[in-house]
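Researcher: Structure for this, please.
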Amino acid sequence: MCSPHRLLFWALLFSISMPAMWGQSYRHLDQEHTPKSYANLEEWLGRAEELRQRILISSGLWPLPSRTPLNASLSEPLIRKGYTVQNVSLETYPGFHLVGNLYRPLGKPQPYPAILSPHGHWKNGRFEDGPLSSVPGRAINFARRGSIVFSYSMIGYNETKDLFPHRFEEPDYELWGFGPLGLQLWNSLRALDFLISLPEVDSDRIGLTGASGGGTQTFLLAAVDQRVRVAAPVNMISAHFQGGCICENAPLLRLGANNVEIGALMAPRPLMLISTSGDWSARTPAIEFPAIQAVYRLFDAEDHVANAHFQYEHNYNQDSREAVYGWFSRWLHGRESSKEEPFEVEPEADLRASLPSPPLPLAELFANFALKAKGQIELHRPSSWSELSRYRKTFGTALRHALQASVDPADVKLRALAPESRNQATRAVLVVHPRDETSTAEAKNLAESYRDQGWLAFLLNPYPEGDECSPPEAVKYWTTYNPTVASLRIAQVRQALKDILRRADVLSVDLVGIGEAGAWALLGGATGPKVRRTLADLKRFSTASDDPFLKNLFVPLLRRAGDFRTAAAMLVPTGLTLCGSADDSLKQWCEEVYESVGAADMLRFENDSAVKVAGAFTQALAVKRKEKVL
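Model: Predicted structure, token format:
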């Protein structure tokens, strides 16, 4: 699905030349990665925490939505040789259902291990039954071995194929982190909730396996949910291919990251990688497996990771299944058993679940998602220092990820204006401005007025003409792998502040953002080193609508992370002046947060522009200096 709105948006985005980053012009899903190595366990644990946060934030699941009642609906069981099968529907989100089949063992001792089985991009979804893959076949065999299995469909497959899209993306969805990957990861989390709720399930013995796109679902869920005790992603983890569907590519997910690292988040829990010579997993024995094994070595758990490599095309065939049967039997049952029994799959009509109601239309589901996300921000609005700390840990972390605060851009170009005579360290100001002639002239005059009062003044126009390169329009899922223009400008502000505060002749720094650059300054200051006071134009913005963010400040997940509200929460109790904003909701938010920590006098709202307000400040400084001389 691609709306006219989206086509226009991306046409505008690609008409803006993109800055180079990380030593190259852009990143993409087919990019060759050299797996990282880690010196010690502590280094890996720090990276692992960052990656887990990134997965949940990029999928719109940070903080997690409310776990509403699943309202599980199960059909009467079909009794077969060694197992039963039931059709299941779960309401994973109000008005949104997950469908699947539940296979239970017959004649085996309880409690049972349980296995989640996502299917991947096979034509027939969870009903796929052929020589390359039999999704029901593996479920039958797992059940006969003594495990409960829940085989569930991806969004827009099987029962929901004609009711809900599998692939969709819109710019406003990206602002809130709403997309196929997040919906599927949430479905997987709720599917696991369902399995563990069954009284006959041993919650300490949970397995997870899928191939292709189901492999992506496998390693993402295993990464963020420790309830998964053993996993086997099949023919998916690769250092040179990250997944070809939008359901495997969320905004921000692989900024400076890749599937090899994400797969290693299973450590030290048992993990088997299945690979084959006929797809992107062909080099797993030589590249991906040794890299993941090195992480397990940090835990002294090399025997908890294995690789089975075959000579086939892309598959989850009998040989691959038998390797997984053996691995799961070892870790879930404490015995070795890998031989697949012959099976006969039920007719598709007998496996189709009934939906209690049609799924919500996509636009309505998004509207509900965004409304609940706004509700979470309001629910967490801090009213004390302790609540502020918790808010920063949740939404401040999300903001830092959305703005790639851990990435330092190269070669920030600052223009410095120093007082004529200096014999000691002094205050500094950073004036951030857009590139138009009027703003450039106003910024220069303002910087000179600060300099004339004895301040070190710095001018920054983030990414001026000449420092940019144009990306190829064919790059898919751009924001999964690359920052946007706005986020790079914000990163330049953040880095400029770091560079200024490293100077021995600087005591403190004030930050001024004029015109369009007001938002860059506010967000850069909120995610950078401590500034004394931030003064920012916000005339273009209202948090009541997504439109100004789409037009002037496109940063995926920015709205989900709390946008300017979270920025204010990160800056308190330092000085903050917002200029030209008519957003009463933002004003009330900032006032309550500053008042709650006793810093109300550090917050101001001005109708005039940042240039006028800052100019008045320098005039007041001049008066004070003159009075001091007299």
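Researcher: Any notable elements?
Model: Confidence is low (pLDDT under 50) at residues 10-24. The radius of gyration is 27 Å.
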